[in-house]
Amino acid sequence: MTMTTMRRARRGAATAALLGLAVAGLAVPATAAAAEPAIEVPTAPVVDGTTTWHYLDDGTDPARGDANLRVWTTTGYDDADWKQAPGSFGAKGGKLAAVGPHLPATLLNHYLDGTAAPTVPTYFFRTSFELEPGVAAEVGQLVGDLVYDDAVQVWVNGEKVAGFVDGRVTGTTNLEYAGDSNGDPLASTFTADGDVLVDGTNTVAIALFQDRASSSDIYLDVPKISLLPEAGTPGEPVAVPPTRVILTPTETPATSQSFSWLAGDVSHTSGQVQIRPAAGGATRTVDAYAAGTVNGNPLQHFSATVDGLTAATAYEYRVGLEGAWSGWTRFTTANPKATDFQFVYYGDAQIGLDSTWPNVVAQAEAKAPRSIGSVHAGDLINTSSNETEWLNWFKGMQTSAATTNVMAAPGNHEYSGDKLLKSWKANFEYPHNNPSTETIGELAELAVGESDVAKQYAAYFAHWTAFATETVYFTDYQGVRFITVNATRDTTFLTPDVLPSCTGVECPQTKVGELWTQFQAAWLDHVLTESPSKWNVVTFHQPVYSTSAGRDEPILRKYWVPVFEEHDIDLVMMGHDHTYARGYHNDDATETAGITDGPVYIVSNSGAKHYELETPEKNVWTNNNATQVLRGAGVTTYQVVDVTKNQLVYRSYLAEKTANATTTLPVGAVYDEFTVTKLDDGRKWVTEAGVEPPVDPNPPVEPTPVDESLLTEANRGGVTAPASAEPGEEVELGLGADRAELAVNVWLHSEPQLLGTPTSDAAGAVRATIPADAPEGEHRLVVQSSEGELIGWAPIRLAADPGTGGPGTGEPGTGGPGTGEPGTGEPGTGGPGAGGPGTGDGSGSAGDGLAHTGAEIQTALWLAGALLAAGAVIAVIAVRRRRQASDGSEA
Fold first, then answer.
1. 3-state class (DSSP) for residue 375
2. Which stretch of DSSP H or E encloses residue 22?
3. Nearest CA to 603 among 570, 634, 581?
4. d(Cα 879, Cα 891) in Å, to the nearest integer?
5. From start to end residue, where is composition biased (Gly residues) (predicted)?
6. By the 8 A CB rule, do 272 and 321 touch?
7. Looking at residue 1, what is its pLDDT?
8. What is the rounded CA–CA span in Å between residue 749 and residue 752?
9. Rounded to the nearest 10 degrees, how much is the dihedral formed by the CA atoms of 431, 435, 436, 440?
10. How far apart are the C-alpha atoms of 181 and 216, rounded to whole Å?
């Protein structure tokens, strides 16, 4: 029986019962029938912090030999001999003491013998609540909060409804160890469908697992379990708008955009994006795919990518489905010709998500009105399995995430209670240009062959290629390549489900964490080598140069810093340490104080969690050939980066500070500032605030086009080019063998547009690409020397491929090429075609679709008028003949 069928059956039974009461009520006065109260779902929690639980903590099996191992989760089970007490429950080293930040109210027996390890493997808890007749059928969802250490499973009336960090639970016995050694207790939210409930007594049962026999603590708290009224059923969408709407970039943000959101109701089993030009035009509808349900939340996540967009264009969009749309929201695609914009860089949000985080984001948005998006250095939340934390993170980002792109890196807390990053991949949609054996260079050769070692390498690389999807990626935005990598190393997510056997020190299983880092380093080398962008920045979580006390990442430093230095990456933006630091590798220092010429390494913190700085003696920077220009503790910051053609201007702002902050600057002040200046020839300087970059003794000369009036037959100069080409096509120009290896400027006239500054090959040829938006018609390709001296020019005719249809806002017209017949389709989205005009909005000119001179246009208009006149005469003659024929037949 399906969920929908079950719910309808339950409602039918409830309705029948009410009808029975109604029939019985016919025998009583009408006033009594009118007083029958409506059935309401309780608004107060059915379980809270005062609830008494029955619990078993002596290491015995609650099944007591029953063939049904889970009999203890059912309502009829007798737990009268179990201990009873209200929560929370726990132990630290066998005593009633704090477990992380939580102090238990009730002490659990920690050890099997009562005094020392081994620990009790599993603890069992039971409680119950009552529902009045008819109430269960009206409950849509049961929602509960849990705080636990190490793993937990939840049942309601004998049906399992949730499990957290329970990947090791086999289910073959009630007593087993499970968990991932997460440190402090985790917080999670579970949700169950109302169908698990019944009128009368309902039983909640919980199994709490120790991670290992030597575990130092145990903890469980159930702050509340609440009931939510029925909102809708699958197949019957309810008019509730989506939430968590977020834009994430594609690899080509000028012409495409990704969208993600959380359904507004459980009945929303499909989703769509609707998008239209903000200036007006047709609305496109694009289907989304279901990205999954996570953390016990039954609401579906959706993602969609829309391509075929126009660069530098404002669009409006909404997400959801018919009857349950979000509001229309605006964003703008990237402009490949623009260089000036801002972006925001955040460190860990993690703690203070309902207070500090929205305040930090609001300050950043006010300081960066031209921001195209934000980069996040991991630990967006504290516990990935906690839906409340995700709710608060998205609430803080509500406007920013829906209007500009979010480029986030996962941190170690994204794995907290979610080792396979299911929440991450449900919430975000990122480019699938992650590492693979095709993009890791020589490292891929380790996976070639039939040896056990090669087979195991192949298994790891295949698994990591799949897992790295949406956690390791890049996007190119207006001259900046934003690169995100995954610095977390955890055996659970790094291990394939099926791993070929291998023995010996050469097997990759002996160095998984290091190999995962090297895998990404090889990919980094590839994407930086291939980068077309002037600026390259990278974001990840754990720093290559740690700042807070007791932290160090030598493996990341070993593999990643050499790549950053070799490619002279511009900004390395990190988090994790809950402090602030900024500096450089000592090899990048110059002879001038306040000026370096290599990567800038930054650690920042954007939440309410703060750590102490490392001591000078153990400073990871100074002990590893690096210098801290600034470091600080007790500060919460955000960073705004202004991008222009030749500069990145970085400013860090104080958003909050603690009483122990290492700065006397007020909140709102600029905390740190520097400028990266880079010329087109690759020379670069990083200058401290107030320090001017060196004066270029030989500044590059900006190309200046030749005056159009000076282009005559006498100075064509022997330059050759194809007679015609299509917009967007690459063409070859011949300059002559005597101009081999010559740096030149290539222009497209009549309205001069620089196509590039190539160097001719040994035969004296250069190649240039005609802009895709170049107008059709007669043009000239003009070649200068790098000093601006005219070398020559050649004519070229630009024409689109014939028969592509008329211009407009819908489908292209279908008229034949060159016939002047009108197109018969809907108004077109393509460029002007070779047929006649489309019949819809925005239909274009008939004819060959090329750009023309004024004389040609006048001639065309004269011919069109003549044809129209001739057509009118023919039409009149035809009408007269029909009338004459008609008169003759009637006579």
1. strand
2. helix 3-25
3. 581
4. 19
5. 803-847
6. yes
7. 38
8. 4
9. 140
10. 10
pLDDT attached to residue 21: 39
- Sites in the chain below the pLDDT cut of 70: 1-38, 182, 231-236, 697-700, 802-891
CA distances from 396 to 37, 402, 404 (A): 41, 11, 14
> Which tokens go with 809?
């806002």
Query: Residue 483 has what pLDDT?
Result: 98
Peptide bond into 693 cis (omega under 30): no
The closest alpha carbon to 800, from 889, 709, 726, belongs to 726
Kindly state the helix (H) or strand (E) to which residue 521 belongs, with its residue range. helix 512-529
Sheet of strand 790-798: strand arrangement: 724-725, 790-798, 777-785, 744-749, 753-756
Q: Give me Rg for the CA atoms of the chain.
A: 35
Q: What angle do CA 759, 762, 768 make, to 5 degrees?
A: 40
Which of 119, 125, 126, 127 lies closest to 59, judged by CA?
119
Q: How far is Cα 605 from Cα 575, in angstroms, rounded to an integer?
A: 6
Whole-model pTM? 0.67
pLDDT for 560: 98
Spatial separation of the C-alpha atoms in residues 154 and 160, rounded to whole Å: 6
- Measured CA to CA, the distance from residue 641 to residue 644 in angstroms comes to 10
Whether the upstream peptide bond of residue 88 has omega within 30° of 0, thus cis, is yes
At residue 425, the pLDDT reads: 96
What confidence score (pLDDT) does residue 803 get? 52
Q: Are 588 and 567 in contact (CB under 8 A)?
A: no
- How high is the pLDDT of residue 682? 86
Structure tokens at 452: 């056990």
Chain centroid, CA 194 distance in Å: 32
Read off φ and ψ for residue 400, nearest 5 degrees.
-60, -45
pLDDT, residue 179, reads 86
- Amino acid in position 63: A
- Phi–psi pair at 449, nearest 5 degrees: 125, 175
**Block residue for tokens 């000119």:** 845
